[in-house]
Amino acid sequence: MPVENWVSRQLDELVEFRRDLHRNPELLYDVERTATKVAEALRAAGVDEVVTGLGRTGVVGVIRGKTDTRGRMIGLRADMDALPIHEATGKPWASTKPGVMHACGHDGHTTMLLGAARQLAESRAFDGTVIVIFQPAEEGGAGAKAMMNDGLFELFPVQEVYGLHNQPGLPIGHFAIRSGPVMASVDEIRIRVEGIGGHAAFPHETVDPVTVTAALIQAVQTIVSRNVDPLKSAVVSITTINGGDAFNIIPTAITLTGTVRTLDEVVRNLVEKRLRKAVAGIGEAFEAKAELEYIRRYPVTINNVEKVEKAVRAATEVAGAPNVQTDLAPTMGGEDFAFMLEAVPGAMIFAGNGPSAGLHHPEYDFNDELIPWGCSYWTTLVRQLLAD
After folding, report:
1. Which residues contact residue 315 at a Cβ distance below 8 angstroms, ignoring those fewer than 6 apart?
2. Is pLDDT at 291 greater than 90 in this prediction?
3. Which pLDDT belongs to residue 5?
4. Average pLDDT over residues 276-280
5. Residue 7 burial (CB < 10 Å; 0-12/13-18/19+)?
6. Between the CA atoms of 379, 149, 295 and 143, what dihedral angle is there, to the nearest 10 degrees?
7. Which of 96, 104, 191, 288 has its CA 20 to 30 Å from the CA of residue 168?
8. 58-64 and 129-135 beta bridge pairing
9. Each residue of 79-131: pLDDT tens digit?
């Protein structure tokens, strides 16, 4: 069965809803307008219950089927926040907020889940309860964790949870997924190198943090190449360097920030251990003070094998087996849906966005042709999982 017929009746309205969100992007937890529109749309659709304020601005809708003979409850999740990027698409529905845009497709994710929620609330053709979860602050704010800390899964004890993300470059009408690790852990590193500043003409009277920093950056880049198993994956990237105010003054301190990405906890622990030794050891070798702050942001996103099979079955019914890839290569990008998957078994699937610009690119735009495919995936998944 391809895209479901009901979508065509809603498509124009859903496209306009998506484009309205795109015109009015909001960052992290400050998604009040978006959350309000989602809550209003859920109430208008006649869902049984709407809960707001979980994780500050998260929204949850409860949709009960015609029957509930087995006490089944499943969660479907979408993210709502945008990115601090200045849009360059030139589209009529481009962001009206300078420096803020939907560059990851969360406007589309929200719209597809909302469209599915409307249809599920109308048909009720399932046995159990569907929890639709609209989450803030995926882009670095751990909004999923915040909603969980506010009791998401205690209030709504789902037995399984599913996510969907658009995939630039994958054709429209295609889906891709894999079992096991599918997206990397996300860690932040902050390094401060403190020496003794002074006149650049008399470096022997200083402890130059610039040269310490140079040595440290070189050493850090050997962790992946010389400490991590070549058959494993890891990324260590230094992304900012700040220090110094004048061309003729050796600064007192340099600060660096960066990120670490891995696909399993053993490698994650190894990289942190080697970073700590490198920072401390190089600082000591140069008689400087070097300190590392290692912040674990998101865990590895791990798809449950059994739930992947269920996601594949739904995607196959919608798109056909030749258009469902089950060996998707893992990505070193991160996703805070990982927190939900740590607590409840489930799966994240990717749906083709066609030949668009890449995620987090100023020319990216969610492809509205994906909306009926995503909506149909959600409703098909519910119908299969909660068959009466």
Report:
1. 175, 177, 324, 349, 377
2. yes
3. 76
4. 97
5. buried
6. 40
7. 96
8. antiparallel
9. 999 999 999 999 999 999 999 999 999 999 999 999 999 999 999 999 999 99
Length of the chain: 388
Amino acid (one-letter) located at 103:
A
What is the distance between the alpha carbons of residues 181 and 344, in angstroms, rounded to a whole number? 15
Full set of structural domains in the chain with CATH:
6-182+300-385 (3.40.630.10), 186-298 (3.30.70.360)
pLDDT, tens digit (0-9, with 9 covering 90-100), for 168-197: 999 999 999 999 999 999 999 999 999 999
Q: Which amino acid is at 32?
A: E
**pLDDT tens-place string over residues 344-371:** 999 999 999 999 999 999 999 999 999 9
Model pLDDT, residue 26: 98
Cα–Cα separations (whole angstroms), residue 262 to 117, 140, 306, 340: 35, 16, 23, 18
